[in-house]
Amino acid sequence: MQSPKPRRKAGPTTNGLDSAEKLDELLISSAICNGEDLGPFVRKTFGTGKPETLLHHLKLFSRSKESEIEEVCKAHYQDFIHAVDDLKSLLSDVESLKSALSDSNSKLQSVAAPLLSSLDSLVEAGTVSKNVDLAIGAVKHCVRVAEIASRANRHLQGGRFYMALKCVELIESELLEKTPSSTLKRMIEKRIPEIRGYVKRRVSKELGDWLVEIRVVCRNLGQLAIGEASSSRQREEEVRIKQKEAECVYALIEEDIDGDEYESSDDDDAFDLTPLYRAYHIHQTLSLQDGFKQYYFDNRELQLKSDSEVSSMTPFLESHQTFFAQIAGFFIVEDRVLRTGGGLISKVEVEFLWDLAVTNMCAVLEDQFSRMQTANHLLLIKDYVSLLGVSLRRYGYTVDPLLEVLSKHRDKYHELLLSDCRKQMAEALSADKFEQMLMKKEYEYSMNVLSFQLQTSDIVPAFPYIAPFSTTVPDCCRIVRSFIEDSVSFMSHGGQLDFYDVVKKYLDRLLGEVLDEALLKLISSSVHVVSQAMQVAANMAVFERACDFFFRHAAQLSGVPLRMAERGRRHFPLTKSQNAAEETLSGLLKKKIDGFMILVENVNWASDDVPQGGNEYMNEVIIYLVTLVSTAQQILPAKVLRRVLHDVLAHISERIVGTLCGDLVKRLSMAAIKGLDVDVQLLDSFTEQLTSLLTEKEANEMKTAFVEIRQMINLLLSSHPEKFLNPVIRERSYHALDNRKVATVSEKLKDPSDSIFGTFGARGSRQNPKNKSLDTLIKRLKDVS
């Protein structure tokens, strides 16, 4: 069927209208047909006041369109009629086609019936095959689940918990949801939590056993580590001693020993962390690692607090090694866990535990040190703590707070050490017999002389050897050396590198306070005879050499070059006791001399005969002095003997002058003065004979000891005694004389004929010039007085 052709739109035709109205009608029709806006036409119409024209045109347009619509409808109706006619012409053809199709369908059904039955059988067989395949797959799945479950059981029985958990995890994540057997599925779902719980209980029990065992392991491990540190320290000391020997020979500066160079056995092989890591691995597998970490940290913290407690039942001196070894082993284990534990414990947690341990150890040390009253006990604990610090510093732990506690108790330790040395020295001095020490063997010489550098010669003497000192000297030297070594031991390995000044300070106190006071007490209470005083004075001379050794030894042990130590040397610290020993010896010798000087009473001071060979008292004194020198020079140093002899000779001079000025002598004769001159010559001869002891200069200085009596005799024997009044002559020849003594002795030397009563018998006789000069001297001296 063909659709009608579109008709052309045309506007309405009007008759009888004028040309203007017709034009308006055409414009309106064109605007409506083109769909344009009619607003301008409406405004124009109302603007002109003639709306009726617009309405008229619109009505005309409407009537023109109605006729057009009518024509279109007529055209379509004709087309429909033609289509119906065409359908009716096809109806017979459709009937013939329908019969042909029916015949074809019958033939097809007759042929396809056997095929349909075969197809149904095929579909049924396919369904059965599919069901069998599903059943076989289900059985295989169940068998696999059963095999994995059986494997998990074998792992559990063999203690391979991680493998068992991995089997359980495989069943749960991949097989359980696909398991077709509901019974098997329920059974497995029930068993999985039980298996995990069983594994967790087993590894927790193993961990608990490990936590118990690791405490014993930590103690042994700490003792091993501290023992290695001690061995390393001994090796360092041996190297340091060799360096010191080289320094003595070549004056080299000792180099520091690197404390990290020592070799040690691998501490990691000394303990087993397998139970811990196994438990941690299992808990990671169970996704319980966070709880396990906290559990481990809490238990280790409790163990540390328990290890940091000090038992009141056992003295700390006996338990301190176990106490510190336990803590050292604890942190060696924690360092290993930190490095190899895969995050089981963090560095922050280890530092927290270390801070806790340091705080507890510092508190324990403060408390125990405050109670200790024995220096040796304090030193033992300090040494062990320093070894603990060396051991743990290798693992990166900071031990400065512990070293600060040790440094804080430095003064107390040295006070206790000084107190101990005071007792030891008192015992050593009280046991002294004031006899020269006899050494029969070379090892005795080495032990008592060479070890303290007391020898005056490098030649080893013949044995048996009698030393110039008594047993007190080596005994006290051993005490001082032990003090130095203990002081250095306490100060070393304590974080302070330069501690020689501290050691030197306390060494000065030991020598200047303890030993010096002990010697002063010995001298004042136990020295009563010359031999004892001489031995003590000889000991003091040896002590002077020993003190040089003490300061060198302290410098060497402190790592200070000897030349630097020599620059800081002070005066001899035993000066008081040395002076007291010499004064005591001089005093006892003066008392002995006084015993011989009593013989002065036997001298006839008014005799006209000059005694030949000197007076008796002086001969006795000279004999004693010769004997004294021969004995004293065996043990006393020359300088000490010179000082003592000088004091003794000065005392002899004072006694003679005192006798001349005293009441014992009423009158002096010139012969007696000449006898005194012979006595003084004997003293001169004695000093000149000391060639092995004195040089010429020293002999002249020795003679100054009796310069007073010599000048007094020279004045009395001179022909013009009044020259004593001349300041120049007096300063040159009589500077040691006192005016009053000269006046007193001169009065006793006056000739009796010059007295008041003697002038009557000798009136008119000429006076002796010497007597006149002597009278002038006496008168002038009296005027001066």
From TrEMBL:
It is found in: Cytoplasm, Cytosol. Residues 401-748 form the Exocyst complex subunit EXOC6/Sec15 C-terminal domain. Component of the exocyst complex involved in the docking of exocytic vesicles with fusion sites on the plasma membrane during regulated or polarized secretion. Involved in polarized cell growth and organ morphogenesis. During cytokinesis, involved in cell plate initiation, cell plate maturation and formation of new primary cell wall. Pfam families: EXOC6_Sec15_N, Sec15_C. It comes from the Eukaryota. It comes from Brassica campestris (Field mustard). This is Exocyst complex component. Residues 58-226 form the Exocyst complex component EXOC6/Sec15 N-terminal domain. The keyword Transport applies. Its main location: cytoplasm. Keywords: Cytoplasm, Exocytosis, Transport. GO terms for cellular component: cytosol; exocyst. InterPro entries: EXOC6/Sec15, EXOC6/Sec15_C, EXOC6/Sec15_C_dom1, EXOC6_Sec15_N, EXOC6PINT-1/Sec15/Tip20_C_dom2.
